[in-house]
């Protein structure tokens, strides 16, 4: 995973939700949830096996 991928995903999500008319609290909650999901996936995902 590229180091900027998580940041870019948060930015895209934030912009998309804003365009849909979501309020700031909803956007903040969604961005936090997405960040947690990515962090957990990164931490617990199995690596490549040879």
TrEMBL record:
Keyword Ion transport: no
Pfam families in the record: HATPase_c_2
The keyword Nucleotide-binding belongs to this UniProt entry's keyword annotation: yes
Domain Histidine kinase/HSP90-like ATPase, chain residue ranges per copy: 3-47
Gene Ontology molecular-function annotations: ATP binding
Keywords: ATP-binding, Kinase, Nucleotide-binding, Serine/threonine-protein kinase, Transferase
The protein's name: ATP-binding protein
